[in-house]
Amino acid sequence: MNRILTPGRTPGRTPRRRTPRTNRWLGAVAGVVLALPLVASGASAAPAADECVYGYSAGQSVFFGAGEAASGVPNRDTGNGCTVMDEIMADAPFSTHGQFTSTVARVASELERAGVLTDAERSSIARAAAASEVGAPHPVTGTRSVDLSTIGLVGYTVRATMPTDAEGTLAALAECGFQNIEPSGRVGNFYGYTSAQLAPLTDAAGLAVPSLGVSLSNLENDIDGVIAEAHAIGAEYVRISGSSRWTLADYSRTAAVLNEVGATLKANGITVAYHNHGYEFETVENGVSGYDVLVRETDPELVTMELDVYWSASVGVGAVELFTTYPGRFELLHLKDLAADGSFADVGEGTIDFAEIFANASLAGVRYGFTEHDQPTPDGVTSACTSIGNLAELRY
C-alpha cells in the first residue's frame, strides 16, 4: 500500500534527443548548468537527470478536463524524466484558448516526429484540447444564480450539536435550504454514529450525502471499512486531508497511495478526494509545492481534489488560479470565506470573490460545493444558514 510510484519513467524507451524546453518545475536550480564529463570509450553513460522532478506522472493519461477534454492518450515519458503533460502544461496558465490549443498542437507535433506519439494519439490530444475550456473566458455576467441542489454543508460546522441532537440539527439545515451534507469523521465514528446509523437521519431530513470525510489511515488500513461506510450512506466521494509535517517526498508517497486506493474505490463506485489546508502550498522545493505534487502525480481518472478556498486564499493562492493551472481536477469545493483580518467568515461576508469562483466552476470540473465555518458564531446552524442564504442571493 505504501509503495512509491516513480513519476515520469517509462521503462525500455531511450529518451529522444532534443533541446529541452524551459520547464517551470525543473529539479535543478534555475540558471545553474551542470558540466558533465565526457564518457570514455566503452564506459557506461550516467543516467540523464530528471528535469521534471515531481512532474506529471507517466501512470496517467493526457487530461485537460472531463468528458471530451480527456484524451485517453497515455501520458508518456518524453525523455529526461518529463512527460507529455509536463511539456504541454509548462506554460500554464494560458491567457487564451487559442494560445493553449496552439501550444498543444506544436508540442504534440514535436512529440509525434520524435516517435513519442502516434499520429492518432496526436490527433486525440488536439481534439481534447479543442474541447477543453482551458484559456477560454469565464466572465462574471451577474445573470446566473447558484444551483442550490449542488450545495451542501461540511458537517464540521455543526460538530457541536450533531452528537447530541443530530435529528434537530439536520432538520434545521434542511429548513434553511441545504440539500446535501458532508459528514466528517472516520470509519465507525461520524459524530458518534456509523454511516448506517446516520443514513436514516439524513434521509428523514431530506439531505443527500455525496461525500464523506475519512482519515488517511482508514484508506491505508481499512479500505473495506471505507467502502462499507460510503455505500451505507450513498456517498460518491470519500475525502482525506494531509499533514503540515510532510515533505515533498511525503506528498509523492501520498499520491501513490491515493492512486492505489483510488483504483479500488473506483471499482466500487467511489472517487477519492484530497482536501487541502494552507501548508500544502507552503511546503516548497525548487518552486514546486506539495499541492503541485498531489495534483500532478495523481491519476485524474481515479483521484480528484476538494479545494478549500479559504485555506488556499489564506496563503495567497486563488481558486481560479488553480482552476486555470489544473483544469478539471476539482470536483469538490469547500466554500468558506476569509475575513479581512484572516479569520473565518460566513460565505459572502468576507473577502473571497465567490462570483468569480462559480463563473469558473465548469473549467474546474466542480460537481459539489460545501459551505463551512471552522469557528461558527453564534452557532453552527445559524452560521450555515447565513452562508447558504448568501449563496442563494449570489449572481455570477
Characterization of the model:
- Residues 1-13 have a biased composition (Low complexity).
- Keywords: Carbohydrate metabolism, Isomerase, Signal.
- Residues 170-359 form the Xylose isomerase-like TIM barrel domain.
- It is a single chain.
- The protein is α/β, with parallel strands linked by helices and 396 residues long.
- The protein has two domains: 1-137, no CATH class; 148-393, Divalent-metal-dependent TIM barrel enzymes (TIM Barrel, Alpha-Beta Barrel).
- 36% of the residues lie in helices and 14% in strands.
- It has 15 helices and 16 strands.
- The protein has helices at 84-89, 97-113, 119-131, 166-175, 195-205, 216-221, 223-233, 248-267, 279-282, 290-297, 309-314, 319-325, 354-359, 361-364, 380-393, and strands spanning 61-63, 70-74, 77-79, 82-83, 151-154, 180-182, 211-213, 237-241, 271-275, 284-285, 288-289, 303-308, 332-335, 337-338, 344-345, 368-371.
- The strands form five sheets. The protein has an eight-stranded parallel sheet. Strands 1-2 form a two-stranded antiparallel sheet. The protein has a two-stranded antiparallel ribbon with strand order 3-4.
- Residues 1-46 have low confidence and may be disordered.
